[in-house]
Each structure stands twice: as C-alpha cells, then as structure tokens.
Specification:
With about 140 residues, this protein is α+β, with helices and mostly antiparallel strands. The chain has one domain. It has 2 helices and 8 strands; from the N terminus they run H-E-E-E-E-H-E-E-E-E. Strands 2-1-5-6-7-8-4-3 form an 8-stranded mixed sheet. Strand 3 and strand 4 form a beta hairpin. The longest helix has 21 residues. It starts with a helix and ends in an 8-residue tail after the last strand. About 15% of the residues have low confidence.
Amino acid sequence: MAQFKVLSLLIAATITISSKYCKNISKQDCEIVFVLNDSKMIKLLKADYVLIENQSGYELKILNKQSKLLIEELVKPQIKFCVKGKIVIAEGNPMFSSSVPVGAESFYPLSNNNRIAFSAEDKILISMINKVMRKS
C-alpha cells in the first residue's frame, strides 16, 4: 500500500512537471526550445536557435555552440518547441527505421548511439507526422 502511495505521488509529480513545460505555454515561453531526457534539460532561448519550416516539418539550427555540445551528449531526448501557440514534442526515431514513434506527433533522426543525428548543415530535421506518409 505504501509503495502504491509513493508511486501515485511520483506519477502526479511527473505530470505536474510535464505540464509546466508542455501545456501552459505563454507567448514568452513560445520563444524557448527545450531539449530534455530523463536526467537533463537544456533550454534554448530565441538567440540560441533558428527554427525554419520546410515541406515535412521543421529544421532546428542550434546557434549556441556550448548548448549544441550539451545536446549532442543527450541520449534519446525529446525536443519541445512552440509553433503558432501550440507545443510540439518531437521524439527520437532510429535513422533507418521504416516506422515512426508510436503516439508521436513529430520525430527527428537518432544516430546508432541514440543521440540526435544532425544534418550536414548542422540542423536537426524534425518531421511532422501529419506531413509525412505513414505506413499502416
């Protein structure tokens, strides 16, 4: 019974932390990109990145070299950013996978060591599920 109470509190804390970054976004928060995994969170301010819309989603260019180095160390991070007042959460997907992450609305390529695979132009290519074709 005590384990259940602890687990319930832990789940509530996780939901509270997630909602802080995912649901209650103000216009000011919309200028922040979060790159995070279970142990670390890197916050990119507007001066640290450029977000460009393309045919399949977005290209995220990290301008802050120190932040980019920290991001390169993260294993299977989520990328959270805001577009037109709506939060977008991108999940990592193995580079040569023929499927997309279950339940994800967007994804980016993961390298063999489960880190973000940057493009040749040093960008993170984020594909939106509704813009790419899904195989059933």
